[in-house]
Design a protein that fits this description.
The chain is α/β, with parallel strands linked by helices. Strands 3-2-1-4-5 form a 5-stranded parallel beta sheet, sandwiched between helices. The relative contact order is 0.22.
Length: 124
């Protein structure tokens, strides 16, 4: 089964009609969706049933080295590699918003993904 990961730091991700249309298309094509983000305000029932919800990794703007933080980030890299590359064979990452792109870039390097797509919600 093909798999993709969606990465977002936003709590209102599912208010984006373009993203909902994309997720509906992925569900229709029977592609497994791994969702990395915070607890969401609302997830449509037909979507929630098809998502595998995960904690958002690498959620920091600037890394300040310490033993505790180095241990945590190393554990996150290992967990991500196992979950995304070994168990689910994810090759594509879908990012929502600019910080989602930053986090997805960190994840991409951890799993050596082929490419990623950014969906930016707010353009002024």
């Amino acid at each position: 089964m093909k798999s993709v990961a969606i990465i977002t730091p936003k709590i209102d991700t599912f208010s984006n009609p373009t993203l909902i249309a994309l997720i509906d298309e992925l569900i229709e094509r029977k592609i497994k969706i791994l969702f990395f983000g915070f607890e969401q305000i609302f997830i449509p029932k037909h979507v929630r049933e098809k998502l595998e919800l995960n904690e958002l990794p690498f959620n920091f703007y600037k890394f300040e080295p310490s033993f505790r933080r180095m241990k945590k980030i190393t554990t996150q890299y290992v967990d991500l590699f196992v979950k995304l590359k070994i168990k689910n064979k994810v090759e594509y990452l879908i990012c929502v918003d600019p910080m989602g792109l930053v986090i997805a870039g960190r994840m991409k390097s951890a799993i050596n993904a082929k490419d990623h797509l950014c969906i930016i919600r707010d353009i002024f």
